[in-house]
Automatic annotation (TrEMBL):
Biological process annotations from GO: tryptophanyl-tRNA aminoacylation
UniProt name for this protein: Tryptophan--tRNA ligase
Protein encoded by which gene: trpS
SUPFAM superfamilies reported for this sequence: Nucleotidylyl transferase
Free-text function comment from the UniProt entry: Catalyzes the attachment of tryptophan to tRNA(Trp).
Source organism of this protein record: Pseudonocardia kunmingensis
Length: 332
C-alpha cells in the first residue's frame, strides 16, 4: 500500500467546510486504500502569533473533529506533531541543506509575513516549509494529498530529498505531489475570490463545522452574490453563487447541473435557504459526535499516545539513518 501523510493545523476552534470538503473527506476515504498518517501540526501553528491558553484545547478539538469526521485510529496513524520530537530534529538537518535564497522564494512566507507585518514575521515562519519537508520525509511518504496552495512547498520537499540522497546516500523516498482532481476548493462567503481560511477569513466568511445551524444559516443568507437573478455555475462571472452551488453539490453528491435545473426560475433566497438546511443536516449529527469525543479527553489521549508510538517507530528509524549518513557520532 502506498503511504500518504497529511495534516491540519490547530489554528482555530473549529474546522471549516473547506477543510472537510477539500481535505479531510479524502483522508477518510484513503484509510482503506493507503497506509495513512494524519497529524495535527502544532509546531507549525506557533509560526504565527498564537494564544498559549488555547493551543492545547484546539489541538484536542482538532483530534475530536477528525475522529468525528471518520478517521479511525485502527485504520490510520493519528498523532500530534510535538509528541514526535523527530520532526524538529530532522528539520534542523534539512535546514542546513536549504539555501537562504531558496527559502526566500516561498510565496506562503511572503503572503503570511505581509499579513503579520514584515518586522513581526519570525524565523519559524521562514523555516515553515523546511519543517513541512521534515514531516513528510520522516515517514517516507509516497504521496502527500494537499491543496494547490501547497504545491511549491512540496517541490522544495522533493528537492531536499533528492539533494540529501545525492550527497549522503539514499535515505528518503521522494514524494509525489498528489493534488486530487475534482476536489472542491471552497471560497470565502464574504469574498468569494479568496479561499475560505481558518486564520485569514473574517468570521462571516467561514462556515464552521461546530457552529449552530442558525449561525451558519445567517452567514449563508448574507453570502456575497451578484446582482443577476439566474442560478448558474460560472466561477468567473458569478463567484458567490458558484461557491454556494459547489458546497451544495459536494454535501449532497448531486451534480451541479442537476441543481441548476432544479433551481431554474427560483431566487437566490431559495437556494440559500435550502443550502442552510443541507449544511445543518451535515453539521448537527457531527456536532453531537464531536461532543462525545470532547467529553472523553482520556480516550483522546490514549488514541494519541498509540499514534505517537507508531509514528515514532518509523520517524526514529529514518532519523537514525539520517544521523548516520550525516556523520554524527552515535550515542552509546
Ligand atoms: P490556516 O488559515 O491556519 O492556514 P486553513 O483553513 O488554510 O488554515 P490548514 O490547516 O492550513 O487550513 O489546511 C488543512 C487542509 O485543508 C489542507 O489540506 C488544505 O489544502 C485544506 N484547505 C484549507 N482551506 C481550504 C479551502 N478553502 N478549500 C479546500 N481545501 C482547503
Ligand atoms: Mg492553510
Amino acid at each position: 500500500r502506498p503511504r500518504v501523510l497529511s495534516g491540519i493545523q490547530p489554528t482555530a476552534d473549529s474546522f471549516h467546510l473547506g477543510n472537510y470538503l477539500g481535505a479531510v473527506r479524502q483522508w477518510v476515504a484513503m484509510q482503506d486504500t493507503h497506509d495513512a498518517f494524519y497529524f495535527v501540526p502544532d509546531l507549525h501553528a506557533i509560526t504565527v502569533e498564537h494564544d498559549p491558553r488555547t493551543l492545547a484545547a484546539r489541538t484536542r478539538n482538532a483530534v475530536a473533529q477528525l475522529l468525528a469526521l471518520g478517521l479511525d485510529p485502527q485504520r490510520c496513524t493519528l498523532f500530534v506533531q510535538s509528541h514526535v520530537p523527530e520532526h524538529a530534529q530532522l528539520e534542523w538537518v534539512l535546514g542546513c541543506l536549504t539555501g537562504f535564497g531558496e527559502a526566500s522564494r516561498m510565496t506562503q512566507f511572503k503572503d503570511k509575513s505581509l499579513r503579520q507585518g514584515a518586522d513581526r514575521a519570525t524565523v519559524g515562519l521562514f523555516t515553515y516549509p523546511v519543517l513541512q519537508a521534515a514531516d513528510i520525509l520522516l515517514y517516507q511518504a509516497d504521496g502527500v494529498p494537499v491543496g494547490e496552495d501547497q504545491r511549491q512547498h512540496l517541490e522544495l520537499t522533493r528537492d531536499l530529498a533528492q539533494r540529501f540522497n545525492a550527497r549522503f546516500g539514499a535515505v528518503f523516498t521522494v514524494p509525489e505531489p498528489f493534488i486530487p482532481t475534482g476536489i472542491a476548493k471552497i471560497q470565502d462567503l464574504q469574498d468569494p475570490t479568496a479561499k475560505m481560511s481558518k486564520s485569514a477569513s473574517s468570521p462571516g466568511g467561514i462556515i464552521e463545522l461546530l457552529d449552530e445551524p442558525r449561525v451558519n444559516a445567517k452567514k449563508i443568507r448574507s453570502a456575497v452574490t451578484d446582482t443577476e437573478r439566474e442560478i448558474r455555475y460560472d466561477p468567473e462571472a458569478k463567484a458567490g453563487i458558484s461557491n454556494l452551488l459547489t458546497i451544495y453539490s459536494a454535501l449532497t453528491d448531486r451534480k451541479v447541473s442537476e441543481l441548476e435545473a432544479d433551481y431554474a426560475g427560483k431566487g437566490y433566497g431559495d437556494l440559500k435557504k435550502d443550502l442552510a438546511e443541507v449544511v445543518a443536516t451535515f453539521t448537527e449529527p457531527l456536532r453531537e459526535r464531536v461532543r462525545v469525543y470532547q467529553d472523553d479527553p482520556a480516550e483522546l489521549d490514549r488514541v494519541l499516545a498509540r499514534g505517537a508510538t507508531r509514528a515514532r517507530e518509523i520517524a526514529g528509524a529514518t532519523l537514525t539513518a539520517v544521523h548516520e549518513r550525516i556523520g554524527f557520532l552515535p550515542p552509546k
